[in-house]
Amino acid sequence: MMDKIFVQIAAYRDPELLPTIRDCVQKASHPERLRFGICWQRSSDDTLAEFSNDPRFRIVSIPFRDSKGVCWARNLLQSMYNDEEYTLQLDSHHRFAEHWDTQLIEMLLCVSSPKPLLTSYVPAYDPETGSLLSHVPCTLAFDRFTAEGAACFRAALLQSYESLAGPVRARFYSAHFAFARGVFCQEVRHDPHLYFIGEEINITVRAFTHGYDLFHPHRTVIWHAYSRGERRKHWDDHVLGELCTTPWYVRDEASHRRNRILLGMEPGTYEFGEYGLGSSRTLAEYERYAGVNFRLRVVQQYTSDNLPPPNPESFSSDEEWLQRCCKQFSALIDVNDQDLPDGDDFDFWYVGIHDKDGRELCRRDLDEMAVQEFLSRAKRIIEFPYRAAERAHTWTIWPHSRTRGWLEIISGLVDR
Fold first, then answer.
1. To bridge 211 with a disulfide, which of 6, 85, 101, 280 should be the other Cys (CB 3.0-4.6 Å)?
2. Could you report how far apart the first and last alpha carbons of the chain are, in Å?
3. How far out from the chain centre does Cα 25 lie?
4. What's the confidence (pLDDT) of residue 416?
5. What is the pLDDT of residue 343?
6. Cα distances (angstroms) measured from residue 11 to each of 17, 135, 291, 377
7. Are 132 and 15 in the same domain?
8. By residue range, what is the domain housing residue 111?
9. Prior bond to 308 cis, omega within 30?
10. Which of 198, 195, 187 lies closest to 235, judged by CA?
């Protein structure tokens, strides 16, 4: 009997859910082996009638007002696991390569690890046209620590991927693409008390301490939609009011504190139970492997340069970490009004800062709300805190319009 794949999709009011499911089924070598778990956080006019009677589908239908966030939804999905040999975790806005299922299994089986996990930020597709924007595989590079202490990542192109015979070692985990043995659903369950930002570093460390080895695929078989377009997000709806007694920012604040305690960034007395660290490896072993110090919120230069793990150096004291790691800077990006594109339907801006050789030091992604807030300011200035070995030299803004797609890139010198 053919090994089954449990496909987990957490969907929140997403018009891309149906196209994602259809493409997933159509592009599989063996669609009969797929078993779907869908946490469908729906509006009253949403429908999944097309698959409601398909025995491959387990659908939990939840009015969107009752949702408690993406980690809560992913936890529900993992409880639907039914001993399938493999599991694939996705968002609800993806496209697939032909024979994606066979390719993922082949990649997972070719790495030397008793507990491998394939994960990455995958290349983008355009939901409006269906165009696949790149076939180059990506890695997960360290981006920054947020003010709340969450470690965030960015996509970086996998160099010389054409010559690679198999996946490469990874430091970090992506929640929108992860493929592993099905038992991962039971061994490393998503913490339902987390909200959104912070889930990826949480699973990264917990998977590592449960004995999982993380890898980036060397071939692209799945694409992801990064621009939001018309998609509603949980925090758009869950604000304090008659229909919401626990606003999203209350959950978010509690979520960050829970993560900081788990990762040793502040003291606390939570009983994490099954959502705690594993016993196969320690938190300190992960920090040495990845070149990260959570308590000090610093990373080694080797990590900042996105060189392959494990890191070759081990720092023995706080003083050595602080002396030899990336430093904290702040850049001012001053945008001239005449350089801004016309229009008011921006749904995404890439904002990046670069060194004198043009290498990206850090990036920030502005959603529609953040863009509108910036455009409403009297002075078009972005203050950009970042960590790097040296100060930034240039900045880049790449705006995306809902109707016109990617617009002309704006760039300038960092005001220091």
1. 280
2. 63
3. 23
4. 60
5. 83
6. 7, 25, 34, 34
7. yes
8. 5-224
9. no
10. 195
Task: Supply 51's token pair.
Answer: 């698959």
Cβ atoms within 10 Å, residue 51: 16
**Chain centroid offset of residue 172 CA:** 9
Residue with tokens 């078009």: 380
pLDDT of residue 389: 66
**Per-run averaged pLDDT (10 residues), the chain, 416 residues:** 93 95 98 97 91 95 94 97 98 97 98 97 93 95 90 93 97 98 98 96 98 98 86 85 80 95 92 96 97 93 94 92 79 86 88 87 85 82 75 90 91 82
- What whole-number distance in Å separates Cα of residue 46 and Cα of residue 17? 10
Q: Considering the domain boundaries, does residue 380 fall inside one?
A: yes
> What are 246's two structure tokens?
């626990």
Where does a domain end: 200, 224, 248? Answer: 224
- The 3-state secondary structure of the chain reads CCCCEEEEEEEECCCCHHHHHHHHHHHCCCHHHEEEEEEEEECCCCCCHHHCCCCCEEEEEEEHHHCCCHHHHHHHHHCCCCCCCEEEEECCCEEECCCHHHHHHHHHHHCCCCCEEEECCCCEECCCCCCECCCCCEEEEEEEECCCCCEEEEEEECCCHHHCCCCEECCCCCCCEEEEECCHHHHCCCCCCCCCCCHHHHHHHHHHHCCCEEEECCCCCEEECCCCCCCCCHHHHCCCECCECCCHHHHHHHHHHHHHHHCCCCCCCCCCHHHCCCCCCCHHHHHHHHCEECCCCEEEHHHHCCCCCCCCCCCCCHHHHHHHECEEEEEEEECCHHHCCCCCCEEEEEEEEECCCCCEEEEEEEEHHHHHHHHCCCCCEEEEEEEECCCCCEEEEEEEECCCEECCCEEEECEC
Domain count, the chain: 2
Please check whether residues 216 and 333 belong to one and the same domain: no
Could you give the CA distance from residue 406 to residue 400 in angstroms, rounded to a whole number? 4
Quick one: which of 332, 333, 314 has its CA closest to 324? 314
